[in-house]
Amino acid sequence: MAIWNELFGQYPWLFWLTVTAVSLIVGSFLNVVIHRLPIMMERQWRAECIDGLSAEGIKVAAPHDSWPARYNLLVPGSNCPHCQTAIPAWRNIPLVSYLLQGGKCHHCHSPISVRYPLVELGTALLCLAIAIKLGPTELFWPTWLLAFGLVALAAIDFDKMLLPDSLTLPLLWLGLLVNLNHGFVALTDAVLGCVFGYLSLWSVFQGFKLLTGKEGMGYGDFKLLAMFGAWFGWQALLPIILLSSIGGAIVGIALTALAKLGKGKPMPFGPWIILGGLAYLFCGEQLIDWYWHSMLGL
Fold this sequence. Notes:
Blueprint: H1 2-10, H2 12-55, H3 96-100, H4 115-134, H5 140-160, H6 165-178, H7 187-212, H8 219-232, H9 237-257, H10 270-295
Helix pairs in contact: 1-2, 2-4, 2-5, 4-5, 5-6, 5-10, 6-8, 7-8, 8-10, 9-10
């Protein structure tokens, strides 16, 4: 790794180009994760429910779905969701294939969702920004992995109101490991950030439920904020909560006013926590200074 850091340090443009190209490819795979991981989790939940009922002597027929029996992040290969035609690798080049095919399937000419190239492009731009921010340092490489996970988490929560533990928890442990030798913050700050990040939203959840009898957010949101606390320390929690709350409130009010979001209908909070966390990654010191001076007058 040190050799690569030295090479990329001498040629920053090569570092940025490499990060962008690899991130485009990973972004294409993230589209698979975003689509398939919730389906895999639903299948697992159903199987566990059936096993639990069987243990109680209750026989339940296994439910059927439209997906193949063997279904994971690698199998089956990519195919058109409309005609099920397999997509060869040379027609699955990130961004390029979508543009050359005019956003349509090469076989049935059905439109392909614009979200696929947007996820690829968004992943590449986010990773490029992190590469410019951190440079070819030891801190960049785990943060690069964090970026991939955040893209997948934001899209899955937006689609399914779900933040999979299989993504959030590994990123949380990775954040603690990064700060083992004072990566972004001291390890003590990271551990406190993890604990207080979880407990802060958990307390809000319990208070809201006590007052209204309803659940205002999911446990995945607690773990997501705990994950950012593990990466950036307890100091990051308040700016992230403020930014995510303001952003979520503005968009929620706008969608309600435009009749795009029904009254009382839940809205995912995870993407806003993620945007707040990314804002802190890029502008953490400025956010803290702004908070102390503008909000508290100190």
